[in-house]
Amino acid sequence: MGRVAELAGVSVRTLHHYDEIGLVRPSARTAGGYRAYSAGDVERLREVLAYRRLGFGLREVAELVGDSSTDAVAHLRRLRGLLLERRDRADAMVAAIDRELEARARGLKVTPEEQLGMLGARLYDVIGGAYTATRRTEPRIAAQILDALEDARTVLNVGAGTGSYEPADREVTAVEPSEVMRRQRPAGSAPCVAAVAESLPFEDHSFDVAMAVSTVHHWGDPIAGLCEMRRVARRVVVLTFDTDEPEWQDRFWLTRDYLPEFATVLAEFPSLAGMADAIGARAEPVPIPWDCTDGLFEAYWRRPGAYLEEHVRRAMSVWTRVGPDAEQRAVRSLRDDLDSGRWAERNSGLAHLDTADLGLRLLIA
Predict the structure, then answer these.
(1) Residues in Cβ contact with 309 at an 8 Å cutoff, skipping those fewer than 6 apart
(2) What does the pLDDT look like over 202-255, one tens digit per residue?
(3) How far apart are CA 304 and CA 283, in angstroms?
(4) 356: which DSSP letter?
(5) What is the pLDDT of residues 203-214, one digit of tens each?
(6) What is the pLDDT of residues 109-155, one digit of tens each?
(7) Is 229 exposed, middle or buried (0-12, 13-18, 19+ CB in 10 A)?
């Protein structure tokens, strides 16, 4: 027990307490009769300590590790998802601090509400709180998704966020790991389960179709998440992004001319072909209307001034991922080019287009 305590970075007293309450009981004995930990005991202890360090109470931890339907791999995937969410929260806090430092350097007043919002319950607003203001269902994209759902009656929406694109005429179950996103779901929306895509808490073939809309790039392991969707549903529909084409980032003037860091954000994102192969899907292009009502990253391709608006950018996770320096540089350069007419000259061919293919793809399996 002493050696295990040393390796785990906890006290022997903590291990005794876990033993007393039945959380982790050593199942082996040494020749001298002392309690010893088997490999399975160590694995369980690892899970207990990981959940504890993420802030879970002992009762919650007991329920999590006591779930017989969840194996070690599922626990690791769940822990990975929780850690990624914590990382995003930390990134959001850094971004909030950077903005306050910049505001103070410019002599601007920072209100008490803004100061408390950075540390309080609205911390995740930095990357998620603007979703209900600018991220709404785009009817033309929704129609394409609805066609792909065909006659499905039961639908699982994975990475559901605030509920955009959930069909109103089907029996929908939502999955969303972020508490902030779940809180923003409107009253009367589909029931929402707190879980990650890589470890869906449902039996095989529980749903007619599993859908995921503009969320795969947030997952810790996209391929694992897609395979989980394939496991729990007879069909799969996923709106994602194509990075297979050479110099794909040049499709969109914003990433081509102002934000080359976007390519780094998706550097480890799986290929469209790889995702399609994982679930046996075909890919359909999803054109973006010039007046798209869903404020996704590419939505304002014919309305460049929107990218100068803080509240518009805050609903796009890309800006948090590239960091405040790249964001402010891109905004300054775009503002200068709009003022000088350089942007209009360089992108004159867009003026009369109703839609643009900027890499959105619908995977249908």
Answers:
(1) none
(2) 999 999 999 999 999 888 889 999 999 999 999 999 999 999 988 898 999 999
(3) 28
(4) E
(5) 999 999 999 999
(6) 776 656 655 554 344 444 555 555 667 889 999 999 999 999 999 99
(7) buried
Inter-residue contact 123 to 142 (CB < 8 Å) = no
What residues form DSSP beta bridges with 210? 156, 236
**Strand 355-356, strand 288-289: pairing:** antiparallel
For tokens 């003037």, the residue is 253
What's residue 84's pLDDT?
Answer: 67
Q: Give the DSSP per-residue string, 288-309.
A: EETT-SB--TTTTTT-GGGGG-
Judged on CB neighbours under 10 Å (0-12, 13-18, 19+), 157 is buried
Would you list the DSSP string of 184-214?
TSPTTPPPEE---GGG--S-TT-EEEEEEES
Other residues' Cβ atoms within 10 Å of the Cβ of residue 105: 8
Of 171 and 85, more confident: 171
Other C-beta atoms within 10 Å of 316: how many?
21
> Nearest-CA neighbor of 96 among 116, 69, 72?
116
- How far is it, in rounded angstroms, from Cα 187 to Cα 190? 9
Nearest to 129 by CA among 179, 197, 196: 179
Distance (Å, rounded) from C-alpha 234 to C-alpha 12? 49
Q: Which residues of 112-146 are buried (b: 16+ CB within 10 A; e: fewer)?
A: eeeeebbeeebbbbbbbbbbbebbeebebbbebbb
Number of helices (H) and strands (E) in the chain: give both, helices first.
17, 11
Q: Please, which contacts does 1-10 make with residues 24 or more away whose CB atoms are closer than 8 Å?
A: 1/26, 1/34, 1/35, 1/36, 1/37, 4/37, 4/42, 4/45, 8/45, 8/46, 8/49, 10/49
Residue 201, burial from CB neighbour count under 10 angstroms (0-12, 13-18, 19+)? middle
CA distances for 248 relative to 111, 251, 254, 256, angstroms? 42, 6, 12, 9
Phi first, then psi: what are they for 294, rounded to 5°? -90, 115
Rounded to an integer, what distance in angstroms lies between the CA atom of residue 221 and that of residue 357? 26
Scan for tokens 């004159």, then name that residue. 348
